[in-house]
């Protein structure tokens, strides 16, 4: 993405997180909670676009060392404050996911929850995620699917940012899919995700 596009995106999310209210609430994502028992106890977790920290802080409360990345400084500030309120700590990193270095075999789990990116950017990010996972590591992904367009219950207004399961199947090369689901579910995460939505859920494991 161009520098102008990055600045525009950063400004959008900083504005969304500017209020005292937590835009997507403070409770963790339901799909994330459901798959967490499959994580290696105490394994290192990277939360992509963690925003105000609801998922990262919850994982830290479960005993995982967490690093949260986001493009919005305001979101990361609120994430750190939420961690303090919950008696835990998380590492925060201000970065653009389209270009930042995720490392090589650096993480046991990588989380991507409702991160909607242009297809080309998403494909490149997911390839880097696979490289950044340790052998046996897990990729947790949930986003709004292509059937979410026009529902008005959450997700980006641009249909091209919605995820198709057929595309995702090509984006985690060599990984085993432990969970693969497309369907409708109730999503209640603050005022921006509220109601029945079509979601795509993936739990993929890198080969040992």
Care to describe what's here?
There is one protein chain. With about 210 residues, this protein is of the alpha/beta class. The protein has a single domain, classed as Vaccinia Virus protein VP39 (Rossmann fold, 3-Layer(aba) Sandwich), CATH 3.40.50.150. The protein is built from six helices and seven strands; from the N terminus they run H-H-E-H-E-H-E-E-H-E-H-E-E. Strands 3-2-1-4-5-7-6 form a seven-stranded mixed β-sheet. Strand 1, helix 3 and strand 2 form a beta-alpha-beta unit. Helix 3 packs parallel to helix 4. It starts with a helix and ends with a strand. Keywords: Methyltransferase, Transferase. This is Putative SAM-dependent methyltransferase. It comes from Candidatus Propionivibrio aalborgensis.
CATH class: Alpha Beta
What structural class do you assign from the helix and strand content? alpha/beta
**Based on the structure given, which CATH architecture is correct?**
3-Layer(aba) Sandwich
> How many domains?
1
Q: Please compute the radius of gyration using only Cα atoms.
A: 16 Å
For CATH, the homologous superfamily is named as: Vaccinia Virus protein VP39
User: SSE order in H/E notation?
Assistant: HHEHEHEEHEHEE
Sheet with most strands: 7 strands, mixed
The CATH topology turns out to be Rossmann fold
End-to-end separation in angstroms reads 33 Å
Helix content: 25-40%
Instruction: Tell me what portion of residues adopts beta-strand conformation.
Output: 25-35%
Mean pLDDT: 96
Q: How would the global form be characterised?
A: globular
The low-confidence parts are none
């Amino acid at each position: 993405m161009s520098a102008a596009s990055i600045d525009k995106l950063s400004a959008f999310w900083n504005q969304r997180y500017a209020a005292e209210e937590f835009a997507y609430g403070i409770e963790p994502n339901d799909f994330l909670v459901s798959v967490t028992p499959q994580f290696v106890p105490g394994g290192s977790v990277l939360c992509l676009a963690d925003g105000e920290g609801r998922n990262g802080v919850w994982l830290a409360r479960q005993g995982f060392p967490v690093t949260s990345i986001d493009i919005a400084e305001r979101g990361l500030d609120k994430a750190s404050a939420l961690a303090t309120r919950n008696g835990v700590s998380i590492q925060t990193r201000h970065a653009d996911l389209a270009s930042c270095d995720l490392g090589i075999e650096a993480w046991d789990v990588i989380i991507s929850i409702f991160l909607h990116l242009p297809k080309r950017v998403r494909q490149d990010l997911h390839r880097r995620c696979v490289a950044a996972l340790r052998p046996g590591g897990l990729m947790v992904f949930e986003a709004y699917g292509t059937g979410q367009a026009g529902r008005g219950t959450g997700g980006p207004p641009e249909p091209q940012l919605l995820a198709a399961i057929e595309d995702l199947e090509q984006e985690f090369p060599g990984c085993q899919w432990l969970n693969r689901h497309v369907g409708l579910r109730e999503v209640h995460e603050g005022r921006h995700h509220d109601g029945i939505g079509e979601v795509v859920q993936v739990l993929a494991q890198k080969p040992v």
